[in-house]
Amino acid sequence: MRYLPVFAGDTVKLRIEHIGESKEFKAKVIEVTPRYGRINRGRTAKNPLLKVLRCGTNEEMHIDNGYVTNIVERYNGPARPPLNIFNEDRWVDLARVRTRKKGVIAGFLVDLASVALRNANFFLPHPVDPERVERLYSRSRIGLVKQERGIYWVNRKPFVRWARQNASRICKTTAQRIKEKTAVNKAYEDDYWRGVDAGDFDS
User: Fold this and answer.
1) Given its phi and psi angles, is residue 119 left (phi above 0), alpha (psi -120 to 50 degrees) or beta?
2) Whole-angstrom Cα distance, residue 188 to residue 155?
């Protein structure tokens, strides 16, 4: 499904059609979340997911970007901070990163790197790749205090500087995300069609 590119703060018109009925309304875009991976057995790209607030109400909803029919007004306020997924609690579990002594943190390397990228003021739409961060960090070991059984103890400040300087090299790429999500989507679809063929969904 094709879609009109929108951004947080825009006011848009949406149309939802369901069983012969059509409903149009205006809404303000609160958040735009890219969705990676293809569906329909790899033939169709997924549209971004929008979080919107219906105008004149307090109703928030999530809806596919493909339902936007018109952009009523573009956001014209102060510049918004770039997307950084590490600012979301669902991406960073701080409980797994322990402070051992002043200035030193410990945890799995992928978690340490994720914490280091938190609050970085640049565009970070993808999570840390465990293999890439391990491979790159093994070449420099900046800030390393010790390593034992997969756990790293590092000096926070130099490690944070290293992670932010190498953010584009230690995070997954868009191509990786599309490939991974497409494989997951295909597995779900294959399971569904096997069920259909087996008559699991007959009424």
Assistant:
1) left
2) 43
* Residues in CB range of 136: below 8 A, 6 or more apart: 166, 169, 170
End-to-end CA distance of the chain: 30
Q: What distance lies between CA 85 and its chain's CA centroid?
A: 6
Q: How far is CA 64 from CA 24, 68, 80, 153, in A?
A: 14, 8, 22, 43
Instruction: Give the pLDDT confidence of 91-145 residue by residue, as tens digits.
Output: 555 556 777 678 999 999 999 999 999 999 999 999 999 999 999 999 999 999 9
Distance of alpha carbon 176 from alpha carbon 174, whole angstroms: 5
- Domains of the chain, by residue range, sit at 11-73, 85-172
Distance CA 148, CA 58 (A): 51
Task: Please tell me the class of the 11-73 domain.
Answer: mainly beta
